[in-house]
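User: Good morning. I'm curious how zinc ion would be positioned relative to this chain. Could you predict the structure with it bound?
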Amino acid sequence: MKKIMITFPHADDVTINLGGLVRQWSNAGHEVYLVRITDDDADCAGIPTREEAIRINREEAEQAYSIIGAKKVIHLGYTSDTFGGIDFLGLREKIIKLLRQIKPNTSITFAMDGREEENMDHRITAYAVAEAHWTASFDLHHPEQFKGGLKPFCVGERLYFARVPEDNYGIFDVTDVMDTKIKAILSHKTVMKNYALQLKMRAQVLGLDTSFFNNNEQDVIIEKYMRKRFSGKDIPGSYEAIERLHNPSAGLDLLKYFK
Ligand SMILES: [Zn+2]
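Assistant: Good morning! Here's the predicted structure, ligand included:
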């Protein structure tokens, strides 16, 4: 049994990018801990207040995470879409503490070099978690955390995902759990409403035919989009559905010097 900790800013990040793998890991008996950094207070359309958006998005996220089989969910409650001005070291400190508490065999987050990544929440999360992976093992970084019994901890396996993965990312077949993943994604009803609306607005500005958006329910639009986005039909293996993760060899290469 492995402990896997996945850290991400927004409710749907893990469901969309890794929902299939989380379900497979959970089926195999591994424990998956999800760390959701923001409260998604603005990711909605037509909800009058941020308080209401926070409440609904949290409920829908809990539902989605239970469908993919997460063991535990930690909500850090940061304001979404503000990481450009965040207290970086404050965020890193919280992640160091979680790593020392959970002691995961594997830690996963956004890739630092994600191609075409225009979301600062994703970028800053990537850097804060990657730096916490090794600073959590320094006994002079946040020694106050040791008073309660925590100890320095160094993450062994560090994996990264991206919205637009590089070619050197590993390919994982998630065909057997794709229907479950779609169900989980559709549970983020409020976030997906905003997602579909953005797709439609972009298509309109580009002068594309948007009749598909007018003629179909939100769930149909999102399902079609996600199945296409995670299709592996055009790559070696020809899987129905795939997810991709990067496992940089840097660091682990060192082990060969001890042989
Ligand atoms: Zn996101």
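The pocket of zinc ion is lined by residues 9-10, 13, 119, 122 (CB under 6 Å). The longest helix spans residues 50-68.
Let me know if you'd like a different ligand tried.
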